[in-house]
Design a protein that fits this description.
695 residues; alpha/beta; Rossmann fold; 4 domains; six-stranded parallel sheet; 23 helices
């Protein structure tokens, strides 16, 4: 079934975001059996618009006309919005909203980007650098509704990296009139980020006495005659400041057609491309140069590192590793210049790369003197890009993510609200551990992605649901309609709208009766339709069986699941930290109410104990901190079904200060001082799960 997708972006702009929008349209067009495409073109700053008459331009015009007509109908509807812009401009336009951005060229995104990301169901970025910015930025924030302070407010939407596809339009012949036979090329707007003045000045310093040229394709703001005159005067003044030189600096201004840009890359007198910018979202000119076998001189930081490295086999070890296939300029990460600050976009506390003058000049000289070597690197890089960055691969990846499902074959489908690359929690880690032992290929889906199309596509597969709070409520009916075999791993109490019985009573002043409501009927129906139901503790299972009237025979206690690698790591820590404990108590700093961070802090304070918060740590660091702590204090104010942290703490030799709300405390497998027996029991979990599931 086709989905109506509304693309909003600068589809006709002569800019990076313009090309990004066109890439998205090409990818969607390649899967027109899945998408009914609509388009709202917008401007992008003062950049010019594509005016040449091409088949693609004609198709874009048709999309615009089609969209205008659709929007004039009484109730225009779209299934998906795809918004190609910086996150400041993202908004909810459809039931499913996708933000598509180049990200930021610095180390940190702005708070408003994180705020706006909450409006998106998923995000697509053009490079791993862009993803890093979202994944590794967090702020302290306050919930406007509850007043709760969130110490680690960060992007929660799933993020996918989709690079550009290698395209090689037919080149147009250009009359560049270059008097020098060896010329470097740089393509950039004259801005702080692009670092063009140093690019030119340092080139002139290095080749002052050599007949070497630098072709500068540049504008200051737009394609106008006034801008051309301004830019030309600026460039002339810069060159003149160096006095008489043998090297040449050539000037090309304004917008160029695709074929003309290709003509630049393929001109016999242009030998390499240089880019000395402080950072790139992706670096399209470098990508295009690499596709045309031009050596590239640049720093090894930000978006372009996705494609400037290629695999090489070590002759001795036979191991294949990715190595730089460009002239690598050394750099330092330092705070951005004050003049680069852009309110709510480029923030003062972020950093970007500053190229080393000496290294840049050295690499320019190396490319000039040893050109054959760098040309051979460029040839190898072109082969790698042509193989890995094909239109087929990139378009498919983009279309899959936009549509909301993977198009690969699988025997098992796992569904959860989030996954460990989006949020590291007990549910996420348990499901990830189960997938590791999966007897066949599996795909992972965010619960919000579940649709009838997807259910129908994978109707003959085995489905496993974890947390599903963001899944459409009627999904259970659709699963039944298509005869899907599915099971549920219940991590909390979704029979209650607050997911916790005690929290329900706290919020509403009366005991939870959600199981007697329409909401409860929906959950009951979903659980009844499942082949198997897995719970985290015996107490949790008994409450669900009693309140929902579930068949006991299909209910099983699973508990938290660990991979053998994690259990091995904890065993090593347990051994190495004997008699090396610090006199500190670990506490959870999770903003989740049930984790009882406030209560744990109070207990430590009342007992004059030093507390260490397990917050903003990689998973292994959490384990190391626990291993070096005397104990763990976890005092959840409501039922916590089987907190993973408590199991980890016990395996790592910690004393435990817990209350009865930790529901697995008195279970036979855990209520023992024999740590090895607990370890053995945990190692049997995955096999037991898959055995029950397949029975």
């Amino acid at each position: 079934m086709k989905k109506k997708i509304l693309v909003r972006g600068p589809a006709l702009s002569m800019s990076g975001y313009g090309e990004q929008t066109r890439f998205a349209l090409r990818a969607l067009r390649a899967y027109e059996d899945l998408f009914d495409i609509y388009l709202i073109p917008v401007g992008w700053g003062k950049t010019g618009w594509i005016w040449e008459a091409t088949e693609e331009r004609e198709w874009i015009d048709q999309l615009v006309e089609k969209t205008i007509k659709h929007n004039m109908t009484p109730n225009p509807h779209y299934d998906i919005s795809l918004q190609v812009t910086i996150p400041n401009e993202w908004e909810k336009l459809a039931p499913v909203n996708i933000g598509y951005t180049a990200g930021i060229e610095t180390t940190k995104i702005s708070p408003i980007w994180i705020e706006k990301s909450q409006l998106m169901d998923r995000i697509i970025v053009v490079s791993n650098h862009a993803k890093y910015g979202f994944d590794n930025t967090s702020y302290e924030a306050r919930n406007q509704h509850t007043g709760e302070v969130i110490k680690d407010f960060k992007c929660q939407a799933p993020i996918e990296v989709v690079n550009f596809a290698a395209r090689k339009p037919e080149a147009s012949k250009l009359n560049l009139d270059l008097s020098t036979d060896f010329n470097f090329l740089t393509i950039a707007q004259w801005s702080v980020r692009k670092n063009l003045e140093n690019t030119i000045n340092w080139f002139i310093e290095e080749f002052k006495n050599d007949k070497v040229g630098l072709v500068v394709k540049v504008s200051t703001m737009n394609n106008s005659k006034m801008d051309e005159d301004l830019t030309r005067r600026r460039l002339k003044a810069l060159v003149k400041s160096h006095g008489d030189t043998k090297c040449k600096v050539y000037f090309i201004h304004g917008d160029m057609k695709e074929g003309e840009i290709q003509g630049l890359y393929q001109d016999k007198k242009i030998k390499a491309l240089v880019n000395l910018s402080h950072g790139e979202g992706f670096g399209l000119p470098m990508f295009e140069a690499a596709i045309n076998k031009l050596p590239v001189v640049t720093i090894a930081w930000s978006g372009h590192t996705d494609f400037l490295y290629a695999p090489e086999k070590n002759r001795k070890t036979k191991k294949v590793r990715k190595k730089p296939h460009f002239a690598k300029v050394e750099y330092n990460l330092q705070p951005i210049q004050k003049e680069a600050v852009w309110k709510d976009v480029i923030i003062p506390e972020s950093m970007w790369a500053y190229a080393h003058k000496g290294s840049y000049k050295k690499e320019l000289r190396n490319v000039y003197k040893n050109y054959n070597y760098y040309a051979s690197l460029a040839n190898k890089l072109e082969k790698h890009i042509s193989k890995e960055f094909t239109e087929e691969k990139q378009y498919k990846k983009f279309a899959e993510y936009a549509y909301g499902e993977k198009l690969k074959e699988a025997d098992y489908v796992f569904v959860n609200d989030l996954w460990p690359d989006q949020y590291v929690g007990g549910a996420e880690l348990t499901l990830e551990s189960l997938i590791e032992y999966c007897p066949g290929p599996a795909i992972k889906l965010n619960s919000k992605m579940v649709s009838e199309t997807l259910i129908e596509k994978y109707a003959d597969k085995t489905w496993v649901f974890g947390n599903f709070t963001e899944m459409p409520m009627h999904s259970g009916e659709l699963l039944k309609k298509h005869g899907v075999n599915y099971s549920v791993v219940e991590f909390d109490y979704k029979l209650c709208k607050y997911r916790n019985l005690e929290l329900h009573e706290l919020m509403e002043g009366s005991p939870c009766n959600c199981h007697e409501t329409e909401y409860g009927d929906t959950i009951r129906s979903f659980f009844e339709g499942a082949n198997k139901l897995f719970f985290m503790s015996e107490k949790q299972m008994s409450i669900n069986v009693e309140r929902l009237g579930l068949e006991p025979d299909k209910c099983h206690v699973l508990s938290s699941v660990f991979t053998s690698d994690v259990l091995d790591f904890m065993k090593e820590l347990r051994t190495s930290t004997v008699n090396k404990k610090k006199n500190v108590w670990a506490i959870s700093a999770s903003p989740n109410w049930v984790k009882g961070a406030k209560e744990a802090k109070q207990w430590c304070s009342e007992n004059n104990l030093e507390a260490v918060e397990l917050n903003n740590m990689p998973y292994k660091q959490v384990l190391k901190t626990l291993a070096s702590s005397k104990g763990l204090c976890l005092l959840p104010p409501g039922a916590d079904t089987c907190p993973r942290l408590v199991i980890e703490a016990k395996l790592l030799g910690c004393e435990l200060e817990c209350n009865d709300n930790v529901q697995h405390l008195e279970e036979e497998w855990f209520d023992t001082d024999d740590i090895e027996s607990i370890d053995k029991y945990l190692r049997s979990y995955p096999e037991r799960f898959w055995g029950v599931l397949s029975a």
